[in-house]
Structure to design on (310 residues):
């Protein structure tokens, strides 16, 4: 089983106490996003969890207790963008985040630290030169602390359009995408960083940028030391190459308040869920009630034959 922690929210930044409590108890519960009273109980013993993928902008809260997950294999998708608090309202200062990245890399090694520079967007103040200047600044500071950078370009979903309506943020056109990609990959080579894309329709192979996978069977097999049985996650967009995983997050719970985020409807919804968070509950938000139907999910290690139970 591959555990995604999480595409839907930043668990390392805001819910690390809850996560460590779940590790101690050996299971967690997750609500179905399409049917909130349908709850899956997921066993997370280390003999069935092949790998954990953490998604975060600031895992500082996790660092003191990493020994509590020493029996698990894992890696981090760690986002460091060039935006200020106009777009990333509650994200800490970049100097602090970069230092956290370096400390974590010192603990677990550069191959388990994937730098995400995404989504790439433009505003009246943020142009290609702005991105290139800050991409090189960050890449230089992360030299030897990571081997890979994942980039993507913003797609204006309805939720992101609503949150960005008071800004001048916009998507890039084709010429801008190819221009910035060429310059980014040239800079990355200077710092021994491989660049890949995430869920992109553009073919940038000619520039030396391959389609990447955030939940990547190649990275996982390198970390765990054995081959796994995997297949493409059918629940993701067709351009996404990620393999199947179980996501334990919940939408409308990330407190970074990044205006381009697709996982939050609005900040009011986030604040309401914050009030219901109980670090000792098996659920990320709230508690099990008599309205809920809880079903234990049958899962196995991907080292053996078979995948997730259907």
């Amino acid at each position: 089983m591959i555990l995604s922690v999480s595409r839907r929210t930043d668990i390392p930044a805001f819910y690390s106490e809850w996560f460590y409590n779940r590790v101690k108890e050996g299971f967690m519960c997750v609500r179905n996003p399409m049917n909130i009273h349908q709850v899956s109980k997921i066993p997370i013993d280390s003999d069935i969890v092949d790998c954990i993928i953490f998604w975060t902008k600031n895992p500082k809260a996790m660092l003191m207790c990493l020994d509590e997950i020493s029996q698990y294999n894992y890696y981090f998708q760690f986002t460091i963008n060039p935006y200020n608090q106009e777009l990333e309202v509650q994200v800490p200062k970049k100097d602090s985040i970069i230092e956290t990245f370096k400390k974590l890399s010192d603990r677990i090694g550069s191959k388990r630290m994937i730098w995400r520079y995404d989504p790439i967007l433009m505003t009246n103040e943020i142009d290609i030169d702005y991105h290139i200047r800050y991409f090189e600044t960050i890449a230089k500071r992360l030299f030897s602390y990571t081997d890979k950078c994942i980039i993507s370009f913003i797609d204006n979903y309805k939720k992101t359009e609503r949150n960005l309506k008071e800004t001048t943020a916009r998507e890039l056109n084709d010429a801008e995408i190819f221009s910035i990609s060429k310059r980014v990959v040239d800079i990355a080579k200077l710092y021994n960083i491989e660049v890949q894309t995430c869920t992109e329709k553009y073919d940038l192979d000619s520039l030396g940028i391959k389609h990447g996978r955030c939940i990547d069977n190649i990275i996982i097999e390198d970390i765990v030391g054995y081959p796994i049985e995997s297949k493409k996650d059918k629940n993701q967009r067709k351009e996404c190459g990620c393999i199947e995983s179980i996501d334990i997050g919940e939408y409308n719970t990330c407190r970074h308040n990044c205006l381009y985020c697709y996982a939050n409807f609005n900040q009011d919804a986030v604040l309401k869920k914050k009030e219901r968070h109980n670090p000792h509950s098996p659920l990320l938000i709230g508690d099990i009630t008599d309205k809920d139907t809880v079903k234990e999910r049958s899962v196995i290690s991907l080292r053996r034959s078979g995948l997730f139970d259907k």
About this structure: DSSP finds eight helices and eleven strands in the chain.
